[in-house]
Specification:
Strands 1-4-3-6-7-8 form a 6-stranded mixed sheet, covered by helices on one side. A two-stranded parallel sheet has the order 2-5. Helix 2 packs across helix 3. It is about 30% helix and about 40% strand. It has one domain: Rossmann fold (3-Layer(aba) Sandwich), CATH 3.40.50. By secondary structure, it is an alpha/beta fold.
């Protein structure tokens, strides 16, 4: 293969991957039981700030950083609020530095990472996982409810492989959250009853 053809392939890979990911879930399932009331959350998930969420490998020579579009912790919190709404709750956002007046749902990002390779050109093999811990915190800062949510993905496609994998993993987590948030244990914890 001549150098010109290799350069064109590498440029095509860059254009296809886009080197960024938009963390968003797909359609969410209906909850087993709809809840009502209001759930308070923070604007952003807790945990370290992150921008890089993956690596793309093209051949053995080129490694690309995959970055999240926007604020990663804010994007995660948006997905959690969507799951709360799907479970039937109204959502309010509280300031993390303010004195808590009632229970609030905090979410911590433990893991968010994806790998992609172009060894089988032109298709990209992309895989990775997301792990979040959601905790309802009482005004006295004790945990009233806590669950770990994990989502994983493996995609093999041509267009937008990192968004496809991130969406698959986030959809798995958000659907699990909808089911947990519609349960009585969560309702009692978030409503303070």
């Amino acid at each position: 293969m001549n150098q010109q053809a290799l350069r064109l392939q590498l440029i095509a890979c860059l254009l296809i991957t886009g080197c960024s990911v938009d963390l968003a879930h797909g359609p969410l399932a209906s909850p087993e039981r709809m809840q009502s009331g209001t759930a308070a959350t923070y604007w952003r998930a807790s945990g370290p700030d992150f921008k890089q969420v993956g690596t793309a490998v093209i051949g053995l020579l080129l490694w690309l950083s995959i970055e999240i579009d926007g604020d990663g912790n804010e994007r995660v919190a948006d997905q959690v609020r969507d799951a709360l709404r799907r479970a039937g709750y109204g959502v309010t956002i509280v300031n993390r530095q303010a004195q808590l007046e009632g229970p609030v749902l905090d979410c911590r990002v433990n893991r968010l990472w994806f790998w992609g390779t172009y060894f089988l050109w032109p298709f990209a093999q992309t895989w990775g996982s997301i792990e979040l811990v959601a905790t309802v915190v009482a005004p006295d800062h004790t945990a009233r409810w806590s669950r770990r949510f994990r989502g994983g993905a493996f995609t093999f496609n041509f267009w937008d492989p990192f968004n496809a994998a991130a969406s698959e993993a986030m959809t798995e987590i958000a659907n699990d959250m909808v089911q947990e948030f519609s349960g009585e244990d969560f309702r009692r914890a978030i409503t303070g009853q």
